[in-house]
Design goal:
It is a single chain. By secondary structure, the protein is an alpha/beta fold. It has 15 helices and 25 strands. Helix 4 packs across helix 8 and helix 5 packs across helix 11. It is globular, with a radius of gyration of 29 Å. The N and C termini lie far apart (about 80 Å).
């Protein structure tokens, strides 16, 4: 026994804390690790040209031999979206429920990885042995079917990860969250709980998904025009309620948007979505029906430029357009940061003569996340010794920590941490134990991580002030100007309308080169710096703008 290290569990979030998105957490026990979820987030406004953001997996790569599996709680993009990028680096088994893996298969197929990755399907209520970890999948409720909480059994105790959840007593698929199992675990003793913090600021409870169905029923009942519903593609329960309302009111359905088409196909194939035969029609046949016989289900509830609803609003859709009199239902809440784009789309729809119904006008959306009373119930049922609030911005994490404290949990047992922090748990203590690399990795086209802060700074500079290229040809022997300078401007001034400014700029460049010649300076780097410095001051004095200046020197 002498000198033997005490057994401990290390919990290391690589994403999902101080942010909404790119959820990814490592559970480390003895010499083995599992990863819970592997998500992406969408770029912020200042991330110009970036497609998606994924977690930094430096620590994962450093310990790739210890990683035994990736375990998924559910199939939302912020929990599965980074999988193709991570699986290209570490090929480990992926465990998830039926619909979750159905959506993962689509992603892996796109990235040509499907035949290389082992996907292990698990049913809610099942327990799987992954080396030293025993992982139990507990049925949960969320805004996508087949969501699960995870109970990770170790010899030290149980780690409960709630995943994203709400407590819906009347779920659409009648599969209620398994509160009984969580209570059983709580009675035996939960060592550590990680819990969803998204809606911790909202008092009370989250409304049942069925309440949206009643609103749809009312709208369908009183509408004779075409109905267009925009929602999250992954919200299969919401799509089911639209299908039910359309079927009841003898309307055919057109599905628009690549992700919506994919999810509907997968969910129907797996039995998560029940669609009567002949209800869905091809978009090309839409004109064969009267307006009161059509429902269009589309993507674009977040105002995304390339999504179905936005393209219809700007008359940019190849097959569909908004007509005066259409009823458009936006069945989602703007994700923080998307309010402006959603507002712009709503305005465009109104301008086209549509009748737009959104959350502030009717109950056309309910959240998939637990409010305060549901979180309190989860805490009381699980009764964990230690607690880490996850899945939320920093204010959400702090408020969730406060809620746990108000329920009687000792402050020293609550860890409000950020991505990269390491929490060490034993039977006797819990503590912060250092940091690992964590942060955003930017994906731009096929490039993963090759765009960093400097490239983004340059893009911002180009976007705000434009570019000026100065081309000069000098002689190899004497270093004298043989031709030029020629000036090309992009995004700074229109050359043909600013001839005087361009002529003056050329004089400034000539002056800088003559000065270098008098000093017998021939190094290209110094010549370029001289041109840049002289031109920068001149252009700022004349225009109060600072374009990016690129001197190009050629030798003859």
């Amino acid at each position: 026994m002498l000198g033997r290290k005490p057994t401990k569990i290390r919990v290391i979030p690589l994403g999902g804390l101080k942010e909404i998105g790119k959820n990814m957490t490592i559970i480390e026990y003895k010499d083995e690790m599992i990863i819970i979820d592997c998500g992406l987030s969408f770029p912020e406004d200042e991330m110009l040209g970036i497609d998606i953001v994924i977690p930094d997996i430096t620590y994962v790569m450093k310990n790739k031999d210890k990683i035994k599996a990736i375990v998924l709680t559910h199939g939302h993009e912020d929990h599965i979206g980074a999988l193709p990028y991570v699986l290209k680096k570490i090929n480990v088994p992926v465990y998830g429920t039926r619909l979750t893996l159905g959506l993962v298969e689509n992603k892996l197929r796109e990235h040509k990885l499907l035949s290389d990755v082992h996907l292990q399907r698990v049913e809610p209520g099942e327990t799987v042995q992954i080396q030293g970890f025993e992982v139990e999948f507990i049925r949960s409720s969320h805004s996508i079917p087949d969501a699960c909480a995870l109970a990770i059994h170790t010899s030290l105790g149980v780690i409960l990860h709630t995943g994203d959840f709400k407590i819906d007593y009347t779920p659409i698929d009648e599969q209620m969250i398994d509160l009984q199992r969580i209570a059983e675990l709580g009675k035996k003793g939960v060592l550590l709980m990680l819990a969803d913090s998204t809606n911790v600021e909202r008092p009370g409870t989250t409304m049942s998904e069925r309440s949206v169905g009643a609103t749809f029923e009312n709208i369908f009942n009183n509408t004779r025009s075409r109905i267009i519903v925009a929602t999250f593609a992954s919200n299969v329960h919401r799509v089911q309620q639209i299908v039910n309302a359309a079927h009841k009111h003898n309307r055919k359905i057109v599905v628009s948007g690549r992700s919506m088409v994919n999810v509907v196909a997968v969910a129907e194939e797996l039995g998560n979505l029940i669609i009567p035969d002949g209800l869905i029609i091809d978009v090309n046949h839409i004109d064969q029906y009267e307006d009161h016989e059509i429902v269009i289900i589309t993507t674009g509830s977040q105002g995304e430029t390339m999504a179905g609803l936005s393209r219809m609003a700007t008359s940019d859709h190849r097959k569909l357009d908004i007509r005066a009199g259409d009823t458009v239902i936006i069945s989602a809440t703007p994700i923080p940061g998307n309010e402006k784009t959603v507002s712009r789309v709503i305005n465009q729809l109104f301008e086209k003569g549509a009748d737009v119904i959104y959350e502030s006008l009717a109950d056309v959306h309910v959240s998939g996340h637990a409010c305060q009373e549901e979180l309190k119930l989860m805490h009381k049922l699980a009764s964990p010794k230690y607690f880490i609030p996850v899945h939320g911005e920093f204010r959400h994490l702090k408020q969730h920590a406060k809620l746990a404290e108000n329920l009687g949990m000792p402050k020293e047992n609550i860890f409000t941490i950020q991505n990269g922090n390491v929490v060490e748990i034993t039977k006797d203590y819990g503590k912060l134990a250092g940091n690992v690399p964590a942060g955003p990795v930017l994906v731009d086209g096929l490039g993963v991580g090759d765009v960093g802060n400097i490239v983004l700074r340059d893009r911002k500079h180009l976007a705000e002030d434009g570019l000026m290229v100065v081309v000069v040809t000098i002689t190899r022997e004497g270093g004298k100007v043989a031709a030029g300078p020629d000036i090309i401007s992009r995004g700074f001034v229109y050359v043909r309308e600013s001839e005087d400014l361009i002529d003056e700029a050329k004089q400034i460049v000539r002056g800088a080169l003559e000065h270098c010649e008098q000093q017998n300076i021939k190094e290209w780097s110094i010549l370029k710096s001289s041109i840049r410095d002289a031109l920068k001051d001149f252009l700022y004095a004349k225009t109060k703008r600072r374009p990016m200046i690129l001197p190009v020197i050629m030798e003859v």
